[in-house]
Amino acid sequence: QVQLVESGGGLVQAGGSLRLSCGASGGTISRYTMAWFRQAPGLEREFVAAMSRSGGKTAYADSVKGRFTISRDNAKNTVYLQMNSLKPEDTAVYYCAADIRILIGTPTTRGIDYWGQGTQVTVSS
User: Fold this and answer.
1) Three-state secondary structure call for residue 116
2) How far is CA 72 from CA 34, 41, 43, 94, 122, in A?
3) Average pLDDT of the chain?
């Protein structure tokens, strides 16, 4: 069983950048499709980005495509989300997620096996 812990969130101005990290324990992320989701107050949790087990495939929400980049370092058992050109509408709690299934299309919340506790990202205007 995998435990996921996010870090790197914080308060930034619009146009700024943050890099989120997700460290795993109790299992190796090389066995999982890894993903990032986010949830703003009053809204449902939504997909942001995902990467296949091998790192050869990625998927992004249209709202972040070209601005966010997901990566993984299996040797460090860590997944990252580089966020550039941040906008106020990016403000949310960001969650790391693991899915035992191979990456086909876009992950959904119902398909996630393990969730991190989340890290707050706030973008001021």
Assistant:
1) coil
2) 8, 28, 28, 16, 24
3) 96
Angstrom distances, CA of residue 16 to CA of 27, 80, 121: 33, 17, 12
Half-sphere exposure of 82 (CA within 13 A, CB side): 7
Low-confidence ranges of the chain (pLDDT < 50): none
Q: What is the pLDDT of residue 54?
A: 86
E strand map for the chain = 3-7, 10-13, 18-25, 33-39, 46-51, 58-60, 68-73, 78-83, 92-99, 114-115, 119-124
Looking at residue 75, what is its pLDDT?
Answer: 92
What's the confidence (pLDDT) of residue 94?
A: 98
pLDDT of 24: 97
Rounded CA gap, 69 and 20, in Å?
Answer: 10
Virtual torsion, Cα 39, 26, 59, 38, nearest 10 deg? 10
